[in-house]
Amino acid sequence: MYKIITTLVLACAAILGFSSTAQAQATQQVKAVYHVNTDVNTMPAILNNIRNHLNADPKAKIVVVTHGPGINFLLQDAKDSQGREFSGAVSDLASKGVDFRVCNNTLTTRNISPDRVLMEARIVPSGVAEVARLQAQEGYVYLKP
To answer: What class is the 29-143 domain?
Structure first.
C-alpha cells in the first residue's frame, strides 16, 4: 500500500511540475526582431505579417530593424509602386507596441536627413549590429520576412 501511495504522490508531483512548466512557458512573452533590408514594394506583405503575428499573440514584443533599402518605408511620404503610403500603418503598429528602428549608417551613406524619418521610428547606429544585439543580449528570435 505504501508503494502505491508513494507512486501516486510522485506521479501527481510530476504532473504538477510539468503543468507549472507549461504555464510558465505559455505566459512568457515572445520577443521577435523582424530584419528588413528590402525595398518598399515588399512592405505591404511584411506589415501584414506583423499584424498577423500580433493578432495571434497580442502580447508579443516586436522590433522592426531596417537598413539599406529597408529604411525607405520609414521615411516621410514613402509610397510603394502602387502609391500606397506607410505612415498610417506604421503609426497603427507603433500604437500596438511595435518598435521601428532605422540604421544611421544607411542614413549617412545615402545623405538622408534624420528629420525625414517618421516620428514613430528610432535611429540606431547600425541596423545589423542592432539585430545582433537584440538576439545575443535580449533574447529576441530572428525573423526575416
So the answer is: alpha beta
Q: What is the pLDDT of residues 80-99, one digit of tens each?
A: 999 999 999 999 999 999 99
13: which DSSP letter? H
Degrees, nearest 5: CA angle 114-118-121: 85
How far is Cα 26 from Cα 64, in angstroms, rounded to an integer?
Answer: 24
What are the tens digits of pLDDT across the range 27-61? Answer: 789 999 999 999 999 999 999 999 999 999 999 99
What burial letters (b/e) apply to 104-114, b meaning 16+ CB within 10 Å? bbbbeeeebee
Q: End-to-end CA distance of the chain, in Å? A: 59
**Cross-strand partners of 81:** none
Cβ neighbours, 10 Å, residue 93: 19
Give the pLDDT confidence score for residue 28 in this predicted structure.
Answer: 87
| Radius of gyration of the chain measured on its C-alpha atoms | 21
For residues 96 and 52, give the distance between their C-alpha atoms in angstroms, rounded to a whole number.
13
**Cβ-contact 63, 34 below 8 angstroms:** yes
Helix (H, G, I), strand (E, B) or coil at 130: helix
